Structures are given as C-alpha cells and as structure tokens.
C-alpha cells in the first residue's frame, strides 16, 4: 500500500468504499446479502502531514474519499481557515498537544452546513458554523464531525473573521479579563503590538477605557506602523530602540504606570515590558517569537514585587471556564459585525496552499495572517 493510501485510510477510518453504493456483508458458508442506506460526504481535498518535520517538506494536499455519516454527524463545507503559528508548531512536532500522524492540518475555521445526519436537530443546511472549542483538521474542503462540535454563527460576519475568531481574539479577551482586575483609566503595556493578538488587545482595551503602551520592533516603515496602531486605539507606540533609555517612566507623560503587561516575544523585548510595570505589576507571557528566554533582574522581584505568569489557550479550553467559550466568541463576533473590531489578514485560495504556507513560515518575506479560502 502506498504512503498516500495509508494516510487516507488512517484519516478516514474506512477500509473500503463502493463509490457511495450500498455495501454488502458476506457470511460463510452460505452467502446472504443485507443492504442498508447511508449518507456519504462528498470527496474532500485536504492538507495532510504524515510525519512531523519542516511544514513545507512534510505537508501536501491529497484527495480523500467520501466518508459515511452517522445519525448525529454534520458534514460541513469549509469556507475559510487560517494558518496559525500553533498549526506550524503542531506539524513540526514541538507543540505540547498535537494529533496523531498522519493528520490533517488546521485548528480553527468556518464552514457551511452541507448535509445532516438523521438525528441532527439544532442545525440546518446552509447554516454557518465554527468548531467550538476549536478542533483538529480544518484544512480540508469537507469535514464530518458530530453536531456537538459545531457552533452556529450569523452569516453577516466576513468569512476571514469568522475563521479566525477562536484563537487570537479569544486569547486577547481572556488575558485582559482573567489575569488582573482592570478598571477604566488603567494602563497596559505590550510587545508584539502588530501581531493579531496585539491588535486585538489594543481595541479591546480601548472599548473598556483602558489605555495601552505598545512596543514594536525597529523597521523601515516604523511611522506607518505607528499610525496604523494609533488608528486602532493605541495611546503610545514605541520602537524597541526608543526604549533603550535609563528611565522609560519619563515616556509615560500623564499616564499611570501599567498594572499589566503582555509578552509574546521574549528576550530584550520582554525586559522592556517589565521596565514599565508598576509596583506589584504582572506580566503575562503567551508567546516567544524571538525564541529567547525571559530574563528578570533581581531588583524587579525584590523591590517591585513583579509577578510573571503564562497563558495558554489550550489549557483554558480544558478548564471549567471553557463552557463560556461560545458566549465570548459571540461577543467578539458582535463587535466585528458592528465594525468595532478588525485586524489585518491575507486571503489565499486553498489551491495556492503551498504559497500560503511559505508566507506563514516567513520564507517569502513578512506577511500578515494567512487565511485559506476554499
């Protein structure tokens, strides 16, 4: 059996198909035939990796055969799905939670209900749905999963936002609400402000009357980037080199010292966040784009009593609060529907998956969030 055939069989869990025709059961020594009707999904096209490794080396798009639907199953025609950094890490095999290989990539997305199992009552053909909590295998044209996996959403949401609301925006919302009690007039500081989470934090903070100090890397288009962030609601934006001064507090002006900081970079950039924090302030680390450790001075602990914490959405999804997931997502989608919430993405046809993957990996230069359109 070829490698592709093995992957197909493992992914679909089917030993054979008969092009959607009725299968037969054969009993020895005499032969009897029993027929039953079955609803089959359409054939699907999927981005599959059969082993862990460099994503551009181990991932390929293959054809998958139809799958039989059970009575509680829903077949969803995917509309859009992003390529997140965590998706890349799962393929590389370095993410703490990952599906067993061979696996279909993707962890969030949005689709349209294509067909229903006989016992499904809460959804209708044509509804828009997202997997909530997010679920493995969204990089494919058709997905069959139980009704309980799918969360119905309004169809007035741009598909790229519906496809991406569950990971980055939800992370931003939870970090603002769950770590430190913030009130209107408080201040937060963050690095990685141009990331999707960073853009979301700026806007969610502004909606709550919370002011933000934002740190970006030095780049050729610094002023244009600063202006974009200000339009989103950023109060102050600094490059890392601007903060290489003895006392960054002089840059605050009339802003109070921040109670809360967010770090997704690590290394020196994390130290810059710590410089701003007030006595007893907290820094939350949710990423490490520089792949450098977070280092903290002894004086920061002894004399400022700073608190360092981490945040991982996957852990939150397995906690008691996960029951609030769909309510929070609906809140975020409501902001998007009203035009109060936006972030930058690049839409790429699924047929150009290889290009989108290379852009997500950074091998074709720096690009925004890659969203596959089916």
UniProtKB/TrEMBL annotation:
The molecular function terms in GO held by this entry are: enoyl-[acyl-carrier-protein] reductase (NADPH) activity
Q: Which GO terms describe its biological process?
A: fatty acid biosynthetic process
Tree of life domain: Eukaryota
Name-wise, this protein is Enoyl-[acyl-carrier-protein] reductase, mitochondrial
Keyword match NADP = yes
What are the annotated GO cellular component locations? mitochondrion
Could you tell me the EC number(s) of this protein? 1.3.1.104
- The main location class comes to mitochondrion
Residue ranges constituting the Enoyl reductase (ER) domain according to the UniProt record: 53-372
What the record says about family reads: Belongs to the zinc-containing alcohol dehydrogenase family. Quinone oxidoreductase subfamily.
Instruction: Provide the reaction this enzyme catalyses.
Output: a 2,3-saturated acyl-[ACP] + NADP(+) = a (2E)-enoyl-[ACP] + NADPH + H(+)
The family database entries (Pfam families) matched by this protein are listed as:
ADH_N, ADH_zinc_N
Against InterPro entries, the record matches this protein to: ADH-like_C (IPR013149), ADH-like_N (IPR013154), ER (IPR020843), GroES-like_sf (IPR011032), Mito_Enoyl-ACP_Reductase (IPR051034), NAD(P)-bd_dom_sf (IPR036291)
Organism of derivation? Tetracentron sinense (Spur-leaf)
Q: Which UniProt keywords apply?
A: Fatty acid biosynthesis, Fatty acid metabolism, Lipid biosynthesis, Lipid metabolism, Mitochondrion, NADP, Oxidoreductase, Transit peptide
CDD domains linked: ETR
Mind telling me which SMART domains this protein's record contains?
Answer: PKS_ER
- Subcellular location, in the record's words? Mitochondrion
């Amino acid at each position: 059996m070829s490698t592709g055939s093995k992957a197909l069989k493992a992914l679909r869990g089917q030993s054979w198909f008969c092009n959607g025709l009725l299968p037969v059961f054969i009993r020895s020594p005499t032969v009897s035939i029993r027929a039953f009707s079955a609803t089959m999904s359409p054939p699907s096209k999927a981005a599959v990796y059969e082993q862990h490794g460099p994503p551009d080396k181990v991932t390929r798009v293959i054809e998958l055969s139809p799958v039989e639907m059970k009575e509680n199953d829903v077949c969803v025609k995917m509309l859009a799905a992003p390529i997140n950094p965590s998706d890349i890490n799962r393929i590389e095999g370095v993410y703490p939670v990952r599906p067993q290989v061979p696996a279909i990539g993707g962890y969030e997305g949005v689709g349209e209900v294509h067909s229903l199992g006989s016992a499904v009552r809460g959804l209708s053909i044509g509804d828009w749905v997202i997997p909530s909590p997010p679920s493995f295998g969204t990089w494919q044209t058709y997905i069959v999963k139980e009704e309980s996996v799918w969360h119905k959403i309004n169809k007035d949401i741009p598909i790229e936002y519906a496809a991406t609301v569950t990971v980055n925006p939800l992370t931003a919302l939870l970090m603002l609400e769950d770590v430190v009690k913030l009130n209107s007039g408080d201040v937060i500081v963050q690095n990685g402000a141009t990331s999707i989470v960073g853009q979301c934090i700026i806007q969610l903070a502004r909606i709550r009357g919370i002011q933000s100090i934002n740190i970006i890397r030095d780049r050729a288009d610094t002023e244009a980037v600063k202006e974009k962030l200000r339009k989103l609601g950023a109060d102050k934006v600094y490059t890392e080199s601007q903060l290489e001064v003895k006392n960054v507090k002089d840059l605050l002006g009339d802003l109070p010292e921040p109670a809360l900081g967010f770090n997704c970079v690590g290394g020196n950039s994390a130290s810059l966040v710590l410089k701003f924090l007030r006595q007893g302030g907290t820094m939350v680390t949710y990423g490490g784009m520089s792949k450098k450790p977070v280092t903290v001075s002894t004086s920061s602990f002894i004399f400022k009593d700073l608190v360092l914490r981490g945040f991982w959405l996957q852990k939150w999804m397995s906690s008691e609060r996960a029951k609030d997931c769909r309510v929070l997502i609906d809140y975020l989608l409501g902001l998007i529907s009203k035009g109060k919430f936006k972030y930058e993405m690049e839409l790429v046809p699924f047929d150009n998956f290889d290009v989108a993957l290379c852009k997500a990996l950074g091998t074709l230069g720096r690009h925004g969030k890659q969203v596959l359109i089916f």
